[in-house]
Specification:
It is a multi-pass membrane protein. This protein is about 75% helix and about 0% strand. By secondary structure, the chain is mostly helical. Helix 2 packs parallel to helix 8 (about 185-225) and helix 10 (about 270-280) packs across helix 12 (about 310-330). The longest helix is centred in the middle third of the chain and has 45 residues, at about 185-225. The protein is globular and about 60 Å long. The two termini are about 25 Å apart. The model is unreliable at about 335-340 (pLDDT under 50).
């Protein structure tokens, strides 16, 4: 009875959340619609964080790096299209006379999208293999992902002729010849983002249904899982790659909704904000992760508009609270029994 009730409430919440988001363009301004399109872009990355952190217990504070890489990949195509596929404005300011070789593949939108997914996936796969293979986890893995964010932000700021430096990529005009300034196009971009969120939410539910017990077992007691003859390495690497791909997809849609991307979106603070949104909605709840992320970024916009100096302090306090709660939960599950685990794991 309780399970049926929970399923019913979940369906009701799905209808309320997604139904409200579908009706949003009809009840608010185009400016607010674009803002919520941005929030939904972040929520795509949040789905991956729920699977990675909530279910598998791997806290990454570098997800914004993958988000930024996806955004830059599509942003490079948009910038080239705005420049008639020649030198961009910042390249001319830096004295370049020829389009850098790095930019040439991004003249093709399909290659740009493919690279926007492939590069984050390869980076996550390599990092995941070399860390998880050496049993690096918990706070040590988190610190490595923080270092990754610092490295990429520094790299992208320092390479102004290639990346636009601190300003990043801006002044996009069209996408496949369609004006990005058109109000109707902005609305369709919003609906495209919402559709991707719904599709990936369903994919996430399928993953949880099939592999959720294994992921939870990895989170709660990885060593005991090994005693059952299950090697968690492949699962950890795969879920990390998947979360990186989702972040990259979110980044590409972010560029279409916002019309810019800069290194400031790739740092530690944006990564913490993504984790915060998931924590608000419930880190083992896919729908809650989406809703929590939208709420968190909506609150950020409201607070930043009225009290611009308070947001970072509030973010720090909330993240400390999350860390304390997470530590308490880890202590509570240390003695969890795995005697019946094998019955619940299906392949």
């Amino acid at each position: 009875m309780s399970r049926n009730y929970n399923n019913l409430m979940s369906r009701v919440f799905e209808l309320i959340l997604f139904g409200s988001l579908m009706l949003l363009p009809f009840v608010t301004s185009s400016f607010r619609v674009a803002l919520f399109g941005k929030y939904l872009s972040y929520s795509i990355a949040a789905v991956g964080i729920v699977l990675l952190w909530g279910y598998t217990g791997i806290l990454s504070l570098g997800q914004a790096v993958f988000f930024g890489l996806g955004a830059y990949a599509l942003g490079m195509y948009l910038k080239l299209e705005a420049s008639n596929f020649g030198l961009t404005d910042f390249m001319q300011w830096c004295g370049l006379e020829k389009l850098p070789l790095l930019w040439v593949p991004f003249k093709n939108v399909f290659i740009a999208i493919l690279l926007g997914i492939l590069i984050p996936a390869l980076l996550a796969g390599a990092l995941g293999y070399f860390t998880f293979k050496r049993s690096i986890k918990d706070v040590y893995f988190t610190l490595i992902t923080q270092a990754l964010a610092v490295i990429f932000v520094t790299l992208f700021i320092g390479q102004q002729p290639l990346t636009g430096g601190t300003n990043g990529l801006t002044n996009f005009k069209t996408f496949l010849g369609i004006s990005l300034k058109d109000e109707k196009i902005k609305m369709w971009i919003y609906y495209l983002t919402l559709a991707v969120v719904i599709v990936l939410y369903v994919v996430g539910k399928v993953i949880v249904k099939k592999y959720g017990n294994i992921l939870i077992a990895i989170r709660d007691n990885e060593e005991r899982l090994k005693y059952l003859g299950i090697n968690p390495l492949g699962y950890k690497i795969t879920i990390y790659i998947f979360s990186a791909v989702l972040a990259a997809i979110g980044g590409m849609l972010f560029v279409l909704n916002v019309g810019m991307i800069s290194p400031s979106e790739m740092g530690i603070i944006p990564s913490i904000e993504l984790v915060l949104g998931v924590a608000i909605g419930g880190k083992v709840n896919l729908l809650g992760g989406i809703a929590g992320t939208v709420v968190a970024y909506f609150l950020k916009s409201i607070i930043s508009e009225n009290y611009p100096d308070i947001w970072l302090y509030l973010l720090g306090v909330v993240f400390i609270m999350i860390s304390l709660i997470e530590y308490t939960n880890i202590k509570l599950i240390k003695n969890i029994r795995f005697s019946k685990l094998k019955k619940h794991i299906t392949f």
